[in-house]
Write a structure and sequence with these properties.
There is one protein chain. With 201 residues, the protein is an all-alpha fold. It has 8 helices and no strands. It has one domain. 73% of the residues lie in helices and 0% in strands. The longest helix has 33 residues.
Amino acid sequence: MKELTVLLGIAMSSALINNVVLSQFLGLCPFLGVSKNVKTAGGMGAAVIFVITISSAVTAMVYSGILKTFGLEYLDTIVFILVIAALVQFVEMVLKKISPGLYNALGVYLPLITTNCAVLGVALTNVQQYAEKCSFGKYLLRGTVNGFATAAGFTVSIVILAGLREKMEYNDIPKSFRGTPIVLLTAGLMAIAFFGFSGLR
């Protein structure tokens, strides 16, 4: 029961309180680039959920089973990037086969998940927070939950921004605020709104 409470705390904290985009400012490139319509944003969110969740589990196993065993902990960043790149390639192949429309809509932002600092950031955060303090089983479980919740928070943020941007298409926005300025202003207001979740601690 205690572990379940810890996992719920990790999930709430990662998804809402310490939202990867709006609090930590990681993963801003796809957040701003793919949030033009809700369908594309949802597709990107689903891809990020898959990549971050699986990479959290795989990097935990690689870190504990290989790097830590052979004293190669200093290689964690390089190895994690290779794992993430392989997972993104897999997602690309699956999307190209199953949903060519979504694959084309995501365009260059899909391979950019490899360099999305949010994905690598979660894997490294898991190492710092759980690898040394917990047993392997707890590290794997907590790290995977943290990864899933972080990606879910990213998805919620990008879908909300996409919905707002769709509505703003019909608004009379001053010329100097059109395009990127109004998007950044909207993201800033969203960050302030998400700051309200800090009371959940």
